[in-house]
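Methods — Computational structure assignment.
A single polypeptide chain was analysed. Its primary sequence is given first, followed by the predicted tertiary structure written as structure tokens.
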Amino acid sequence: MKSSGCGKGSCGCATAESPPVPTEVAAPAVTAGSVPGITARINGIALHAAGDRPDDATLRQRAYSELLRQRAVGLGLLGADDLATDDGILTEAASSAIERLLETELVVPTPDEPSCRRYFESNPAKFQLGEKVHLRHILFAVTPGTNVSLLRQRAASALLDARCRGDDALARFAAMAAELSNCPSGAEGGDLGWLTRDACAPEFGREIFSQSDVGVLPRLVHSRFGLHVVEVLGRQAGAEQTFAEVRGAVQQLLQQQSYVAALRQYLQLLAAGANLEGVELDEADSLLVQ
């Protein structure tokens, strides 16, 4: 059986090494309210050097990090002499203070057993042991400066082409991967081998393992790395587990979901009470502190 993934950590597939974990607070997906040409500030503190405005995603990340840094200073968890920088990089003291801040101010309830059991009964496939899929893909990577609209058009065109092929479908997909994919697996026709859910980026795995289709999937798969045209070559069912066997995993998952919800609400409250210039922060669809 072929070893899984491209092993480069640059796409949504299984990797030999996990992507590097940033120390900053990753901002939620929010409305695009930044104003080009204006220095963005939080309560008068600049988020970037004049004339050196970062992209919107980076700017929002810096905005949320700065909100937390200022709150930590306000509560005496961080010295007022620990000043913000215009490159968005937190000092070690600021990072530690933000961790203490969140431990102090976030109220995250522990899921009770009935809640865990209900979740398990509604999502048994998530806790199967050893479920695998054999995949190949074509990655259209999103990188700084990428025209996402144009990239999506190219990916959608490739998807249509891959789905419309007849007898030469296998060879054609491999040729397209070699020509178009931004993943190292393109050199092998996009073949990623057999993957487990845990070996994939979470958002990639959720999409692949939440369905039973075999063949070229009917829609593009989105991941933190970009857009994927995915073909499922085979599926191997996993062994079912009892609730008693996975209770801890279920509780941990629900605990993380509660933490995300609490953090989202907390940051929204901080933003609502702040003076924002040049950046607009609104309700988030997702949030993660890494």
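Note: The longest helix spans residues 243-272.
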